[in-house]
Design a protein that fits this description.
Length: about 400
Amino acid sequence: MKNWFRRQPATETRALDAEMYPWLMMLPTASGIQVTPQVALRCSAANGCIRLISSVLGDLPVHAMQRQEDGGRERLRDHPADRLLNDFAAPWLHGRELRREVTLAALLHGRGYALAVRAGGEIRELHMLPSHAVTVDVDEWTGEPTYKVALKAGGTREVSWRDMVDVKALGGQSPTMLAREAIGLALELEKHGSKLWANGGRPSGVLKFAKQMSDAALERVRAAWQSAHGGDNSGRTAILEGGAEFDPIALTSTDSQYLENRRHQVTEIARFYGISPIMLGVLEGSTFNNSEAAGRQLLTYCVQGWLTAWANALSRVLLTEDERASGIYLTFKTEAITAADIKSLYESLRQAVGGPIMTPADARNALDLPFLQGSENLYPPQGTNAPAQASKDNGNE
């Protein structure tokens, strides 16, 4: 009888840049441009998206927090995770720079890696690894990963998932490579504009002659025309003889919509990264209110997914199972992103605390602030009674 429950052998999946990048880079886009991570950074829209996301993930502080029995929160400043992520992760690499560069690698290559270096069982340093040096073996049944790191001297070193910070883009696929067609078209439009204006724009018109002329005669006419109407002499009255005609060249519909095409490409590229075009300088249709909301949109629809990926990857490596069970967690402080709307946040919390909805302790928990004695009591509006406890309402007392 066949054993259907037999453990299947592990299957190997390589990082996107190691397996797919050579194939993707050999194929030009429809515009004819081969878009690599380095080429993509030359596109202003893609560069803006990549720089914005990686900078935000690098600049936001990360705190190791402890949930208290009374419901409060306390920051663990002496925890190794708090120290490594907010101070130097290695003697040559600051924790914020590490987070920025690993995020950059994930944006360009699909995954970013950092290796935890232990001494005496405690994590002492975090070392960034190049994406192309890491391959991943994934168990077909359990999904448990094993990492293989290429060594300079040759060969590989096997690393447990407990020692590898693995920050993945959505599906482990590089948004930059997914946007390669849009980026290629944007670069082609930019190149078209450069060629158009390299010599002062396209020719203003064409000289036509009724009969065929020799090369020497054409050269003499060209020199005379440039002398009379080229450079600083543009705009002077043209005198034509010998049956010559001047036919002006008009801009085509595509040429006249050049700026609209470029703006559309900025919006198209921004979609791949989940960024509002307002953050990239596309201000058409923007108002003061929706510009202010762009910070919240950046956090909610773009950065939050990366924060979750980072928190999961860091907690897996920097926190033990016992620490997680005891209520220790890592959190990014996002007040810097929502600072423009901090007044609305505090006002909403004040109104909730001032009614029968939230206690001051609930509001302080929402802000990851320490517990204060007496803050667990509700403060209903004046002239109203505090709501009965749930046990009394349910008849459980």
